[in-house]
Design goal:
- It is a single chain.
- Helix content is 95%, strand content 0%.
- It contains 1 helix and no strands.
């Protein structure tokens, strides 16, 4: 009876070692390929995200430039009107 118990206890240990050895041989190559693919995917995502950010910045820059140009034009028009008024208004 004692022999049966020891044999049953040894069997899972041997199978566990065999399973770990076989898996380790192929898993290294697979993990390297997976990490390369994952890195390529992440790089692609980062590039696309950066493109979107640059596009937004360009749009903001153009809007700011247009606003600045409008303000400048309005200021110049206001200054011209002020000069015209000064000509016709008497100085007190």
């Amino acid at each position: 009876m004692l022999a049966r118990l020891t044999a049953a206890r040894r069997l899972p240990r041997v199978l566990g070692v065999r399973f770990a050895n076989t898996r380790a041989e192929g898993s290294v190559a697979q993990s390297r390929e997976f990490s390369k693919k994952e890195k390529a995917h992440e790089d692609q995502f980062i590039r696309e995200h950066e493109r979107q950010q640059i596009k937004k910045l360009r749009e903001r820059s153009m809007l700011r430039k247009l606003k600045w140009m409008l303000l400048r034009r309005n200021t110049r028009n206001w200054q011209k009107r002020q000069k015209r008024r000064e000509k016709w208004l008497p100085h007190w």
